[in-house]
From TrEMBL:
It comes from Ornithinibacillus sp. 4-3. GO terms for molecular function: phosphotyrosine residue binding. Keywords: Membrane, Repeat, SH2 domain, Transmembrane, Transmembrane helix. This is MucBP domain-containing protein. The chain crosses the membrane at residues 1040-1059. CDD domains: FN3.
Amino acid sequence: MKKNVSEVVEAVVRIDHTTPTLTLLGENPMSVFYGEVFEEPGYQAEDNFTDDLEVIVTGEIDTNQIGEQKLTYPVQDQAGNKVTKTRTVYVIDKDQPIITLKGGNPLVLEVGTAYEEAGATAEDNVDGDISDQIKITDNIDTSKLGIYQVVYKVEDSSGNQATAIRTIEVVDTIAPEITLNGEEEIIIELGDEYQEAGAQALDNYDGDVSNRIEITGDVDTNRIGTYQITYSVADSSNNTVSITRTIHVTDATPPTDVIFKATSVTTDRVAFTFSAHDLGGIKNYILLRDGEEIALLDGGSTSYTDEELQAGTTYLYELTAVDFSDNASLKVAKEVTTKEKSVVAAPITVEYVDEGGNQLTKVETLTGKIGEVYQTEAKEIEGYELVEMPDNASGEFTEEAQTVTYVYALEEEESILGEPVIVEHVDEEGTELLPPEELIGNIGDSYQTHPSEIAGYELLQNPDNATGEFTDEAQTVIYVYTPIESDVEGTIIIDYVNEAGESIAGRETQTGIVGEVYQTEPKAIEGYQLIDTPDNATGEFTEEPQIVVYVYALMEEEPTLGAPVIVKYMDEAGEELIPSEELTGKLGESYQTEAIEIGGYEVLKTPDNATGEFTSEAQTVIYIYTSVESDVEGTVIIEYVDETGQSIANRETQTGVVGEAYETEPKIIEGYELVETQGNATGEFTEEPQTVTYVYALEEEEPILGAPVTVKYVDEAGEELIPSVVLKGNMGESYQTEAIELGGYDVVQTPDNASGTFTEEAQTVTYVYAPKKVEVPLEGTIMIEYVNEEGQSLVSRETRIGVVGEAYTTEAKAIKGYQLIEIPENATGTFTEEMQTVTYVYTLEKREEPKETEIPELIEIILDEPPVEVFPGITVTVKDTQTIIQLPNDLPAGTLLQVLTAEVKEQKDLKQAGEVYDFLFTFPEEQGDYSGTFILTMGVDEAGDQAALYHYQEAWQRIGGTLSGNTITATVSDFSMYGVFMEEVLETEPPVKEEPEEKEPKQEPKGQETEGKKPAKEPKEEKPAEEEATILPATATNQYNWLIAGIVLMITGSSIWLIRRKRKYKEDHQ
């Protein structure tokens, strides 16, 4: 049975009220650059029910538009829940504008020209053309050289700035202009003086640069020619310019002082001498005989002989001198008559003289007839040998006298060795104190001996034969000594001997206390060199005498080069067949020559001197050849020379038929190596001789290591102060050592072998030091004065201080209106303990007589300026000071006055209280010493009542004076240095209580007056200035008065204080 059943359905409805979640990716806000593509970063939307959400972005970003732009992101879920977000995008401009300069950059401007701004353009990617916004600044000054900048700046609407710079260099490229003073081309007569006129130079920038002109070139007015003087100048920019002046030195003056003499007249000839003077020199002499030219002589000729004349005939000779400018002198005439013919010839004198021209034998006279032959011979003269044979030893008799002179020299005698001289040193008993010394020498040579220092002894007797000559008998020189009391002393005997042990220099001795150090040194002995230094050259004194022996060897003399030997190869007619050969060698060395083969010739005569020795005179060796019949032959000469062209081996030749081949080879020459071949070493014979020259150079020897040189630095006891140094080098190389600075020590002995050469023997160089002596250096003083001839100072004296013994140098000053006339001998010197005075003396410069001028009543002098002329009876003031000088009426005319600032050192017991000046009066020379009275007023700075005028004469001397306000006046007569001072109160004096400053009379400042107040002290106007100036201030009285016044014021003040205190006490207790 169907039952009715009902169902209940339950429905659940979910409602969405939640909005979606929207996230913008990327930045927000964000920026994008102008013109770039904008890429939307995206977003992310989520919902709690729906996954498929759609976001529709609205808006657009235009990157070509600057500014803020927005994008909107709306989203809605299915339930209608919405959310919207916005992204802000800023389009920005980051690019700077671009500035383009118009015109050149960099730009070069000539100094002084105007700068014209070419301008610039500016383009911006956003704003476009913004040229009108460019700002231009510069620092250009075209009147001055330098590098300048023009700065261009612009900013776009986004604030992007751009800068451009144009560089401007202001330069000077224009060279100065030179203008010659005087003519550009000048003609000067030979011998006249050339006066340099100079030039001027102006530059567009530097102005007058005449002082920079460099003048080059010389003019020799004693020599004909064309000369150029060049004037060059450069400005500060090194722009250079040159200009040239041409000077022609000409000769328009004919020769002068023509002398024409006939010095010898015979039957057929006349001999003349002649001379002339011309600055340009003599080119020719023209000699006429009877109007016809017989000789055109060179200007260097001084004599001429006219021959083949007729005997007993009169001729008229005329001489004309011609210079190199063809200026001819006046003719000088000389009439000469030849002698009549004679049969008897003039005599011939035969002389025999020594090299000094002294006659050795009787003069001989030969006579004969003209044309006869004469013959003379040398004589044998005892003790002499012939050294010069006369050219006219034989000849013919002539009309003129002749002299034949044979010259002799003393024969050199063989030196004979004398007997030795023995030197002994003995005591009074004859006992030897030192080993005897043996001296040797040739007979006639002198010897000299000396006593020796012998420890514990003194010389008693000096022998008569201490000096003398070597003879053929032995001699003994005996020095006798006597003992003396002293510390135990030792003796060192120093001998200088040759390799045979023979003494070559005087023996020496040293004495010293036993145990002390001694040091000996070798001697420099002419002609000898040291070869052995003994081990005991240094050591200690001992009781026994010690002998130190230095051994020497004879120096090898440098060989003397002899005169060359010329080898000639000639035919019978005297013609050279091949070039001559020159041999060289040292004096005494032998030479050897050989005949050589010459094509087509054979030797006809071999000379006697084909072999021989080189001498001091040149020699010629001549081989004579004769031609032979043969095929035509050629010759090849082969020479072997060094790099200077000197032959080092005998020349060789090869001969052969013309056209045949020849071949040469270099020689092996000991000590030389081949460096060059000149000519064809191989080839064919030709008719003309050919020369092949092999050139050699000396082989370089392998250096040999020398023995070491040890350098030691020791004290006086021989102890090394620092480790020694060992030097090494090759034999013959030089070494150099130096003393070095060692703290606390000074060098006291520098060795003789401080520098030298490395040898095969070891050497020691020893520097000896001693401890430094610390001394306080003494100081000396130099006082320098600059005075006139009367000794009066012209400027302030100066002083210099330096260490005694050190050098000083002083110099004269340039003083306006004066010239230096005397430089002292001690202008330079060394400081000494005593003070020295260096005095430069001046005199007034000469000047024109002054025109008569009106004498002023008042003259103002400027301090430290040159002297000025002052006049009698006038008043002189010193500018910017309070100093006044009233001059006397009898002051000499022409007196000069100079006032100088004086530097005052601190004075004992004196304190400067006012002006101090040096007054320099210069009186005329004819006046001599002038003495007159002057009234001097000077300014006072402080302590007016205690100040006084002082005068300096080696020390400050008190004069006094009358105080008036802030000046002090006194009459003085001796002018030099004056000043205002006050005495300083010594600390030991009892102190004087001073009243408060307001109680003292108040001193008014200079040049000011206070209305209604009188000065603290008024001048006594009723007295004349002269009378007032002579009153000396009562300084002590014034001090006493002030003391009394102070005491009175103290008492009065104390009384007033007590009265007031009592009154106050009563008031307090009423």
